[in-house]
C-alpha cells in the first residue's frame, strides 16, 4: 500500500499549481480568440478573383443555358427565370455599416425591394443592421460565413459555411432563407464541373442557388454610367442584377442606384426580391410547387440559440482583437515616449559628468568593508575574493559570509590565506541574513555588497565609493558586465545589461528614484542601512527592497558607470528563466511592500509618485504588454497588408537598435553584439514576458519562492585579476580596525537580529 505521504506527493504532481493553471488558461484563451478571428475574418476581392473555369463535362446543358435560379433540391436539375420586365436587385458581401444603410435608404426612397446575400461573419458583427434589412421588406440570402472560395474547401467545411451563415441570420433577424450564392460565382455558362458539384451539394441541403443575369461590375468602380449600362437588361428581358454593398468603397453603387431604379421603372420594369420574382415566374407552370415559396420564413428556436452563441463568439473575438490593436498603439506610444525620455535624460547625465571640473566632491579614501554572501560558490569564489582583495583602494577588508554551503566554499577562501580577508560561517538562512551578518561584523562605515561570482576591476572599489564625497548619497550602483559572452543567450543578456545600466540607471538617477542597487556591485553608508533596518528578508529582491527604502528616507542613490564588475550570466534559457522569475517576482513584492509611499509626503512621496509608477509602467506593464507586438505582427502578416506590417515591425526594431547603439557608445562597448539583437525578438523577449506573466500569476495566487541558486561554470573574468597588493597608505588621522573573525559578543554566537 502506498504511504499517505507518497500519495500526497503524487497528487501534487498531478495537480499543477494555480499560477500554472492561470497561465495555461490565459494562453488557451488568447489562442482560441485568435483562432476564431482567423476563421471568421473575410477577405473581399473582386468577383474576377476565383478559380479558373474548368471542364464543363457533367454539367447539364439545361443548367448552363438556363435561368439564374438553379434548383438541385430533391435530385432535380432545373432552372428558372424571372418574368419579363422584372428585375431583382441583389447585393453581395454585406451588411456593411457604412454602405448598406445608404443603399437601403435609396431603395426606400424608390419603393423597391431587393435581395441581400449576406456574409455570416458580417451578420454576426452587424445583427441590428441585418434585422433592419428584413424589416424594410427585403430578402436575405446566404453568401457563406467567411466569403472563402468554396471550391478550395473540404465538403464538411462547405456545409459548415452555409449552416453557420444560416444560424447567424436566424439570431440576427429571426428568419431562415432558401437562397444561396457562392462567392466569386458568375453566370450560368461559367458553371463548370467543380461548381456544379457545389450546386448539387447546396441542393441536397435544400438551397436554391442564385447566380446573375447582369453584373454591374461596381466593384471595379468604373463610373456611374458604366455601372448603369452593365446592369440594364436588353429588349425587355428580366434580370437578376449583381451589385455589392460591402467589400470596398461603394459610393458609385449608391449613386448609380438613384438613377437606375427610376429609369427602369419608367421603361415599365418592376422590382422584386428573388423569391417573389421566382413565384411570379412559376405561376401557371406545370412544374410549379403547390404553394408559393416563402420569403425568409421564421427560423426555429434551436437555430436562434446556436446563432446567439455564434454571434457572441464573433463579438468576443472582434473585441479582443480591437483591444489588442489598442494595446499595440499604447505599447508603441509608451515605447517611443520612454525611449525619448531615456535618451534625453541619460545623455544629459553623461554630458554633465564629462564637464571639466565635475566631481562627486572630495576624493574618498575611507576604508571599505566588502560583504560577500556565498552559498555553494566554489566555482567563482576564489576569483571574486582575489579581485576584491587586490583592489587599489586603501584599506579594504573582505568578509565572506558562508551561508551554509555544502561544496566547501568557505574552505576554499580559508586556504587562500589572503590578508584582510576573513570567512564567517553561519547556518543557511538566506541571502538577506548573510548580508546583515556581514554588515554587523564589518569594521568600516562604507559597506560594499558583492555577489559570490562577481569579479571586480582593480579600480572598481575606489571608483564605486567616490560618490560618498557627497554627504547626501546613501548608496551607489556600479556597472555590471557580463563576462561570459560566448553563447547567444549570454550575448542577449550583455545587450540588456549595457542598455539597463547605461540608460535606465542614468534616467533613474536624474529622476532621483533609483529602484535597485544591484547585488553584484553596490555600496552603502552604514548609517543609511541602519535607518532602514538593514537588508530585509520580506522579498526575494532584497537589493530592490533596500534601495527603495533608502530612497523613501531621502538618501540619494546614484550610478557610477566606470566602477566595473564582471558577472557570470546564465547560459541556458532554463537557467535564465529561473533567475529572471526570481528577480521579477521579487521586484513586484518590493513594489507592493512600498505602495504606501504613493500617499506619503516628502522624499517617500516623491519616490512613490515618480519611481513606483515609472517602474510599474515601464518595468512591469510595458514588458507584459510586449506580446501584443508579436500578436499584431502575426495578425498583420495573415490578415493585413504584409508590407505595412513588416515596415512597422522594422521600425520598432530600428528604434531598439538606435537605443542600444547609444547605450553601447556611452559604455564604450563594441557594436558587434548588436548584430544579434534582431534574433532577440524571436526567443529572448518571449521568454521575458513569460517570466513576467508567471511572476504576476504567482503574486496574484499568493505563491512563494525560495532563493534559487544558479549552476555556475566558474568562467574566467574578462580582465586579468591582479594578485593582492598591500593597501595604499591611509590618509593622516585614520587607522585600520583590528581584524575579527567571529561574531560580535553582543550576538552571543548568533547572526545579528535584523533591525
Commentary on this structure:
- The chain has about 750 residues and is of the alpha/beta class.
- It is built from 25 helices and 18 strands.
- The chain has an 8-stranded mixed beta sheet with strand order 13-12-11-14-17-16-18-15, sandwiched between helices. Strands 3, 4, 5, 8, 9 and 10 form a 6-stranded parallel beta sheet that branches. A 4-stranded mixed beta sheet has the order 2-1-7-6.
- Helix 13 links the parallel strand 11 (about 370-375) and strand 12.
- Helix 6 packs across helix 7 (about 155-175).
- Residues about 5-15 and about 715-755 have low confidence and may be disordered.
- This is Bi-functional transferase/deacetylase.
- InterPro entries: Glyco_hydro/deAcase_b/a-brl, NODB_dom, Nucleotide-diphossugar_trans.
- Keywords: Glycosyltransferase, Membrane, Transferase, Transmembrane, Transmembrane helix.
- One of its GO terms (molecular function) is glycosyltransferase activity.
Amino acid at each position: 500500500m502506498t504511504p499517505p505521504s507518497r500519495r500526497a506527493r503524487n497528487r501534487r504532481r498531478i495537480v499543477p499549481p494555480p499560477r500554472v493553471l492561470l497561465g495555461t488558461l490565459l494562453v488557451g484563451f488568447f489562442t482560441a480568440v485568435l483562432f476564431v478571428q482567423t476563421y471568421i475574418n473575410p477577405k473581399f476581392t473582386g468577383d474576377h478573383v476565383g478559380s479558373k473555369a474548368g471542364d464543363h463535362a457533367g454539367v447539364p446543358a439545361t443548367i448552363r443555358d438556363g435561368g439564374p435560379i438553379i434548383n438541385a433540391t430533391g435530385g432535380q436539375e432545373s432552372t428558372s427565370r424571372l418574368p419579363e420586365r422584372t428585375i431583382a436587385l441583389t447585393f453581395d458581401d454585406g451588411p456593411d455599416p457604412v454602405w448598406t444603410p445608404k443603399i437601403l435608404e435609396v431603395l426606400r426612397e424608390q419603393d423597391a425591394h431587393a435581395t441581400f446575400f449576406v456574409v455570416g461573419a458580417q451578420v454576426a458583427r452587424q445583427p441590428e443592421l441585418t434585422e433592419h434589412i428584413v424589416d424594410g421588406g427585403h430578402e436575405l440570402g446566404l453568401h457563406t460565413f467567411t466569403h472563402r472560395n468554396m471550391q478550395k474547401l473540404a465538403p464538411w467545411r462547405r456545409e459548415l459555411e452555409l449552416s453557420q451563415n444560416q444560424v447567424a441570420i436566424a439570431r440576427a433577424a429571426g428568419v431562415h432563407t432558401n437562397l444561396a450564392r457562392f462567392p466569386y460565382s458568375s453566370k450560368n455558362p461559367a458553371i463548370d464541373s467543380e461548381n456544379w458539384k457545389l450546386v448539387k451539394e447546396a441542393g441536397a441541403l435544400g438551397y436554391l442557388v442564385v447566380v446573375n443575369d447582369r453584373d454591374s461590375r461596381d466593384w471595379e468602380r468604373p463610373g456611374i454610367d458604366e455601372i448603369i449600362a452593365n446592369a440594364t437588361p436588353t429588349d425587355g428581358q428580366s434580370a437578376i442584377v449583381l451589385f455589392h454593398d460591402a467589400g470596398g468603397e461603394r459610393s458609385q453603387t449608391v449613386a448609380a442606384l438613384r438613377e437606375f431604379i427610376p429609369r427602369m421603372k419608367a421603361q415599365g420594369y418592376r422590382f422584386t426580391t428573388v423569391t417573389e420574382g421566382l413565384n411570379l415566374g412559376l405561376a401557371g407552370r406545370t412544374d410549379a410547387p403547390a404553394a408559393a415559396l416563402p420569403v425568409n420564413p421564421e427560423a426555429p428556436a434551436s437555430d436562434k440559440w446556436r446563432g446567439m452563441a455564434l454571434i457572441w463568439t464573433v463579438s468576443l473575438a472582434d473585441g479582443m482583437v480591437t483591444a489588442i490593436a489598442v494595446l499595440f498603439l499604447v505599447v508603441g506610444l509608451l515605447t517611443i515616449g520612454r525611449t525619448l525620455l531615456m535618451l534625453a535624460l541619460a545623455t544629459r547625465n553623461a554630458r554633465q559628468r564629462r564637464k571639466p571640473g565635475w566631481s562627486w566632491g572630495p576624493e574618498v579614501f575611507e576604508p571599505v568593508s566588502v560583504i560577500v554572501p556565498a552559498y555553494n560558490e566554489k566555482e567563482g569564489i576564489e576569483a571574486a575574493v582575489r579581485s576584491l582583495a587586490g583592489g587599489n583602494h586603501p584599506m579594504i577588508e573582505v568578509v565572506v559570509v558562508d551561508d551554509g554551503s555544502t561544496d566547501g566554499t568557505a574552505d576554499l577562501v580559508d586556504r587562500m590565506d589572503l590578508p584582510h580577508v576573513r570567512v564567517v560561517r553561519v547556518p543557511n538562512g538566506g541571502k538577506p541574513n548573510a548580508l546583515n551578518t556581514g554588515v554587523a561584523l564589518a569594521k568600516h562605515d562604507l559597506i560594499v555588497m558583492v555577489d559570490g561570482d562577481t569579479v571586480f576591476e582593480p579600480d572598481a572599489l575606489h571608483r564605486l565609493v567616490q560618490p560618498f564625497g557627497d554627504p547626501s548619497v546613501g548608496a551607489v550602483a556600479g556597472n555590471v558586465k557580463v563576462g561570459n559572452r560566448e553563447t547567444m543567450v549570454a550575448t542577449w543578456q550583455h545587450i540588456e545589461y549595457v542598455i539597463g545600466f547605461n540608460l535606465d540607471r542614468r534616467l533613474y538617477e536624474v529622476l532621483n528614484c533609483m529602484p535597485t542597487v544591484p547585488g553584484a556591485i553596490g555600496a552603502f553608508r552604514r548609517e543609511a542601512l541602519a535607518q532602514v533596518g538593514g537588508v530585509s528578508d520580506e522579498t526575494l529582491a532584497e537589493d530592490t527592497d533596500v534601495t527603495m527604502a533608502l530612497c523613501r528616507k531621502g538618501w540619494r542613490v546614484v550610478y557610477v558607470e566606470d566602477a566595473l564588475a564582471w558577472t557570470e550570466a546564465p547560459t541556458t534559457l532554463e537557467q535564465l528563466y529561473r533567475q529572471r522569475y526570481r528577480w521579477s517576482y521579487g521586484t513586484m513584492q518590493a513594489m507592493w511592500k512600498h505602495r504606501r509611499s504613493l500617499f506619503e509626503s516628502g522624499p517617500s512621496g516623491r519616490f512613490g509618485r515618480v519611481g513606483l509608477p515609472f517602474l510599474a509602467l515601464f518595468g512591469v506593464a510595458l514588458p507584459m504588454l510586449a506580446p501584443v507586438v508579436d500578436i499584431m505582427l502575426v495578425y498583420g502578416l495573415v490578415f493585413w497588408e504584409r508590407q505595412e506590417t513588416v515596415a512597422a515591425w522594422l521600425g520598432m526594431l530600428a528604434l531598439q537598435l538606435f537605443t542600444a547603439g547609444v547605450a553601447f557608445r556611452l559604455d564604450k562597448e563594441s557594436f558587434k553584439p548588436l548584430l544579434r539583437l534582431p534574433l532577440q525578438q524571436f526567443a529572448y523577449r518571449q521568454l521575458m514576458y513569460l517570466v513576467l506573466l508567471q511572476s504576476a500569476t504567482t503574486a496574484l495566487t499568493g505563491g512563494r519562492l525560495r532563493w534559487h541558486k544558479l549552476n555556475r561554470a566558474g568562467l574566467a573574468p574578462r580582465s586579468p585579476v591582479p594578485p593582492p597588493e598591500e593597501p595604499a597608505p591611509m590618509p593622516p588621522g585614520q587607522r585600520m580596525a583590528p581584524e575579527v573573525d567571529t561574531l560580535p559578543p553582543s550576538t552571543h554566537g548568533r547572526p545579528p537580529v535584523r533591525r
